[in-house]
Write a structure and sequence with these properties.
- The structure is a single chain.
- 31% of the residues are buried.
- The chain has eight helices and six strands; from the N terminus they run E-H-H-H-H-E-H-E-H-E-H-E-E-H.
- The protein has 183 residues and is an alpha/beta fold.
- The chain has helices spanning 17-26, 38-42, 46-58, 71-80, 96-104, 122-128, 138-143, 174-180, and strands at residues 4-7, 84-89, 112-115, 132-135, 150-154, 169-171.
- A six-stranded parallel sheet has the order 3-2-1-4-5-6, sandwiched between helices.
């Protein structure tokens, strides 16, 4: 049976944090908290956060993000088995071409890529009614709670605020999930 998988990108498929930390350091900021919020992570203002994003965009840094532990191999194997791979990422749509360029460097093309910015991912989940959703942030997984039964958290140790009393199936990497699941 063909299944639909919706994956987040940053922190699930590719390592965004190392590039982000490098850009922030070059701008004179340092990590002060291991968190997803950029303003909290570097102790910066909204204006300084925009400066980081502008640097990432202007230098097209999303084109060269490294893969996280065999994630692209898993995506390609799922596609080869006939499954549908949708990417829903919280970057702005103006970065769509950079993200696709990054994928082609890994010989991967998703069935569909959504760059939703700050608008949330629920509309993507509602449209596809996926069999699986993979994300590294609980609030994005919660957006899928009414549209999918298999909510998979990929997290290698970044603490998150507990939003509700929901337990997500959690793995360190997509490959760990793939190697141990019987989907």
């Amino acid at each position: 049976m063909i299944k639909t998988f919706v994956f987040d990108n940053d922190g699930v498929i590719q390592d965004y944090t190392a590039m982000l930390d490098k850009v922030a350091t070059n701008l004179g900021f340092s990590v002060c908290s291991n968190t997803y919020s950029i303003r909290t992570r570097y102790g910066i203002s909204k204006l300084e956060e925009r400066l980081i994003y502008k640097r990432i965009s202007n230098r097209r840094l999303l084109r060269n993000l490294p893969e996280l532990n065999g994630a692209f191999d898993v995506l390609k194997q799922l596609q080869e088995a006939g499954h549908k791979i949708i990417i829903a990422t919280a970057i702005d749509d103006v970065l769509y071409d950079d993200r696709m360029s990054s994928y082609t460097k890994h010989d991967f093309v998703p069935d569909k890529l959504y760059c939703v910015g700050n608008s949330g991912k629920e509309s993507v989940y509602e449209h596809y009614k996926p069999d699986y959703i993979f994300d590294d942030q609980h609030h994005h997984l919660l957006e899928g709670i009414n549209h999918c039964q298999n909510l998979i958290c990929i997290n290698d140790g970044i603490p998150q605020k507990k939003v509700v009393e929901t337990t997500f199936e959690t793995y360190k990497t997509v490959k760990d999930w793939y190697d141990t699941s019987n989907f």
